[in-house]
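The instructor's notes for this session suggest beginning with a concrete chain rather than abstract definitions. Hand out the sequence below and ask the class to guess, before any prediction is shown, which regions might be ordered.
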Amino acid sequence: MIELSEKLKKKLDGLIALLKAQKVIVAFSGGIDSSLLAYLSKKNAEETLLITMKSLLYSEEETEEARNFALNYNIPHLFLETEPLSNEEFSQNKINRCYTCKKDIFAKILKVKEERGYNLVIEGSNITDLGDYRPGLDALKELNILSPYIKADRLVSKYFQLETESKPSGACFASRIPYNQVITESKLKMIENAEKFLKDSFNLTQLRVRYHDEKIARIEVLKKDLEKIINDKSIDKIIDKFKEIGFCYITIDLEGFRSGSLNEILSNSRN
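After discussion, reveal the predicted structure:
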């Protein structure tokens, strides 16, 4: 078994103390961060409820993974339906899109909290998120949602032998569409189908298909995986499938996968 540093143990003890004797709702995506919070809450809180949002922003695969985690650890689990495209502030995709989305989602979760008499709502934003443009974090602060950051979450998850410790980072499909380009259901479905094809066909775990104007697909994969898709056979296969999905132009980003790459234009505009 791996060992945790004294500093990390102290952080972990602080989180466990926060959960003790509390009735806790975990905003649960099924990712590495929220899964760790779900596990710790189940072990230490008086009562735990996981809430997962279902919408066209997330794949059915992600939904099933969240469901299976809750079943494996015998944690009560609730799915809430949401329709983000019904909110014009969201679909217009301004730079505060994430703020709008988080406000809507957590308003629904807080309603459950009040109706069922829970004490806390926690969610799994990681401390690494503080280094990027994350307007959704402002919404969490306004609504008094706790984000108990645990640095080295993968290490802690491995310590507890959680199957999610090697899970790649995720984000909603809207994050693949550049700001100020309208979000539509057809765009989201194209992104979902394209990413599923790449994962299934080339054994990829970490990737993004970014949707740019004029039906341009920009594929990001880890640099070590570029050789899997940059060869004549793979390129022809990708072109055929992506054009079938609806893309007109297909590109591969030579910089590779990087979380939040669409925020790079915001950084450049400030310089």
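Then share the key points. The domain at 6-166 is CATH 3.40.50.620 (Rossmann fold). Residues 90 and 101 are 7 Å apart (CA to CA).
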